[in-house]
Amino acid sequence: MPLSVEEIRINYLRVQEEIQRTALKCGRKPEEIRVVVVSKSQPLEVIEAAIKAGIRSFGENYPEEAVDKINAFRQIESIEWHMIGHLQSRKAKLVADYFNWMHSLDSLRIAEKMEGLLAERNKHLKVLLEFNVGGEVSKFGWPASDQNHWAELIPEIEQIQRYPHLQICGLMTMPPLTATLQEAQGYFRKLRKLRDFLQERLPSLNLHELSMGTSADYPAAIIEGATMVRIGQAILGPRDYSKG
What we know:
Helix 1 crosses helix 2, helix 3 (63-72) packs parallel to helix 4 and helix 4 (92-98) crosses helix 5. The protein has helices at residues 5-25, 44-52, 63-72, 92-98, 108-121, 154-161, 181-201, 218-223, 233-236, and strands at residues 34-38, 57-60, 80-83, 101-105, 125-132, 142-143, 166-172, 209-211, 228-231. The model has no long low-confidence stretch (mean pLDDT 96). By secondary structure, the chain is α/β, with parallel strands linked by helices. The protein has one domain: TIM Barrel (Alpha-Beta Barrel), CATH 3.20.20.
């Protein structure tokens, strides 16, 4: 049974309180950290309850699933929609048309595709570059597990930087699902170090955002510098997979 407005509000406040505690403990400002509520596989009634509970930033993995939700609440101008899953090229138009953020820009090919679509629409999109810091062969993102090869990433990032309709705002990663909390924190630390490495070598970029951390490990991500944490079931409850 879907959670009520009050249940979602309580969960959301609990997460915000944990963020505040963790941030203050490690000398950070809590207001630097935003929660993107992952709403994939949640029905419209849950999204509506979340909006009534005060939530305004939603993350979706599948563009075609998100479109109905975005259209249903289009009249609420303060809502931001974040594309957080791997983007197939054939669905790029949906991201160009409907989303405010893309956390999962994971290749030069997709960047080229998005730039062309955005130019046609005279639109700009805030993007985060996704890096595979865990070295998983099944994971998307630029390979970044070996620090000795980080310099090889720079030419493609410089190319993306030249695309006027893509605003690079930072980096994103997902640690391996099998990672322990301690291991996950190590991967988050590696992404922060990669951000610092790239920022030093590409000073014209402003890589102020780090999107990392989920319901299972967001305090560890905050300790390592996360500015966006992607939290779903800890706030909205179990997902509904009954419709595929």
